[in-house]
Structures are given as C-alpha cells and as structure tokens.
Amino acid sequence: MAVQGSSDVLVDELYETTYRLRQFVEARLREKGASVARLRALRMLARARQSLRMRELSEMAGIAARTATSIVDSLERDGLVERIPHPQDRRALLVRLTEEGLRCHREAEEIDRLALAEATAGLDEDDRAHLRALLARIRAHTHD
After folding, report:
1. What's the rounded mean pLDDT across residues 25-30?
2. Percent over 90 (pLDDT), the chain
3. CB of 36 within 8 A of CB of 25?
4. pLDDT value, residue 2
C-alpha cells in the first residue's frame, strides 16, 4: 500500500509506482555511472539531432534551467557534451553531444530499456494495452 500523500489512494499508488520505477531504473543506471537525469539530458540532445540552447534543453527535459546547467556541467566534465558558440548570437552557447556522449547515450538507453522490460515483465500485451488506455483516460481529464 502506498503512503497516503493525497486524498485518493489510486493517485498515491500511481505516484508510488512511478517513484519505484524511477528508483529501479536509477539503480541499474548507477551501476554504469549514469543516472536518469543524465540519461534524460542525453536523450533530448540525441533526439534533437542538433545543438541546443540551455533553455531549449531545460524545456524539453522538463527541468529548471539551474538543474539543466548543473547536469550539463557534469556531462561536460565527463566529455559527453560540449558547449559551442552560437553561430548567430555571440552571447549564447549551444550544447551538443560528443562522440563519447552518443556512445554513452546508446548504452544508457539499453540499460533503461532492459530495466523497464524487467519491471513490467508481469504484464502481458492485453494488460499493457488496458493500462495504457486507463492512463490515457486520466490524462484526457487533466489536460490544460
């Protein structure tokens, strides 16, 4: 049973499940020196297929600008990203993946995929489809 943090036990269980999934994946990534936050930043840069401003990266990843800066600082120290001058705005910098960053991204994505497959192994295709449909109904009632 999830810890009660809201007025609805279902919502508490959704939060608890999400939290546990993140911790499960985080533990797998940590074994290889990665993290969910770092994977998310690498994923956004890889999907963009171009250099991004820090603001763009923070918006795409759904994190605060300060958090994005901290993550990029760490990724840069590890040689996974680099900051480069913006070609049209001399005051701005762009962030892009290095070759090592691309390799690290692919490895972390595979760890993520395997961990999530393990975590959801008890669900068959019908279970997955049903759960996705239920979650979509919740999202439909909470859109802006």
Report:
1. 94
2. 79
3. yes
4. 56
Query: How buried is residue 124: exposed, middle or buried, by Cβ count under 10 Å (0-12/13-18/19+)?
Result: exposed
For 64-103, what is each residue's pLDDT tens digit? 999 999 999 999 999 999 999 988 888 889 999 999 999 9
Query: Scanning the structure block, which residue is given the tokens 């901290």?
Result: 70
Q: How many CB atoms lie within 10 A of CB 42?
A: 25
The pTM (predicted TM-score) of the whole model is 0.83
Q: From residue 59, how far is each of 10, 45, 67, 79, 110 by CA, in Å?
A: 29, 12, 11, 23, 24
Q: How far is CA 73 from the centre of its chain?
A: 17
The arithmetic mean of pLDDT across residues 100-128, rounded, is: 96
Buried b (16+ CB within 10 A) or exposed e, 59-78: ebbebeeeebeebbeebeee
* Pick from 41, 48, 35, 37: nearest CA to 81: 41
- Tokens at 92, concatenated: 């701005």
Q: Which of 50, 46, 52, 92 is nearest to 68 (CA)?
A: 52
